[in-house]
Amino acid sequence: MKITWLAIPAATLTLVFAFSLPTIAHAEGSSVESAAAVGSMGPGDAGETVALESVPAAADSTAPAPFRIELIPDTEDDYGPREDRRHHFEDGGVDDWWSSTRPPGEFLGSIFRYNRVEGVALGLLTEHPLSGRGFQPRWGAGLGYGFATERGLYQVFLEQPLVSSQKLTLGAAGYRVNDVFFLGNEVIGNDENTASSLFLRKDYRDWYEAEGARAWVGVYPSRHFSLSGGIEVRDERPLEIGTDWAVFSSNQPFRDNPAAEEGIYRAWTASATYDSRPKKKTGRVRGRSGWDPLTHHARLTWERADAGLGGDFDHWRVVFDGRSYLRLSPDQDFTLRVLLGWGESADGSLPIQRRFYLGGLSTMRGHNFKSIEGDRTALVNLLYSFRLFGARRGLILADAGTAWDEGSLGSQKVEVDLGGGIQLGEDGVRFIVARTVNKPDADFRLVMRFQESF
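The chain above was modelled as a monomer; its predicted structure follows.
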């Protein structure tokens, strides 16, 4: 098992970089993400990976938040039902110029990221939340610029309550963003990917440009449950590598950025979300020590890109991503994650930017990065955590999943990974060793993470 010890100076520099910032407002399910993915392999290469990720306030998917300077102080104990009844226009698939998974809260923020496509990208944004009752809308706006692509980026949205209880809303959004392939925002956070690209020339995201608009209706029948449905129109264009610089240079360049299928995407979309994770007043997810013994976070999404609407894509896709968090005792926790996806296209295969990818960070942790792909997928992740001594915890994990193009799940070979590790503190660094059991001669893979995988 090979380990690149460059991880140590890289992690140190990254942590200094992150914690020298002012107060940071994070996306829902995440906290300061400040690390790099390092190791003897890059994304898609053979070998092993050491991934340094961020210390979470709690887990996501979804993931990922750029640096945001919050002007409103965080109050821990004053939060009410309104914070859980909100609509994010993440259903549109837009990236995190402000993260579409970002919790609501009146704020002014800034964004910094670095990757092989944009080089340095900077942005400013503001958002004003729903008030809880009445007809005051939620709105936001953001502007950014990618220096390597030499393109401006923007997002604007407005969500108008239709009833005074704000249980029914009508929203619209317009944007030009550099979006990422399926699960790209979840397997590695924005700040971690920035550090990995900047320090180690390892960009674990695949990028394409999307410019368009979306309109939706949001329904909030209860504190934890929400529904939405709408229509989206956007132009999608491939992006090329724009930079090859990193602090710690090596002979290995950035890997290629896969060319997304170009065209006009016009689709009907719908989603249903259940999230019982407790939130702070700012909307951020609380640390797991404050959760109920049984907590759930599940999301079902459907999209139908229809050539009859005048677009270039003709396919449908359904994705279910569910997580359950069970506290067996004060010293034992069990986490289950189920990811199911199914899609079909009139052109044979789903567009490359909408195919399902497994392998490596946060999915099949004993496999190479994105080594499994298809138009259909099934994944189960299990994690058992128990106290060892002091604040240190032992970890036992199992991953089982596959992705394929034709046939049923029953006819597929399911890959299985097993592993274990240690966690330093309630939300501390995690060292995990995992290995696939399908190949007798498979290598062990060591992963160092600063955040939950899911």
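The domain at 7-449 is CATH 2.40.160.50 (Porin).
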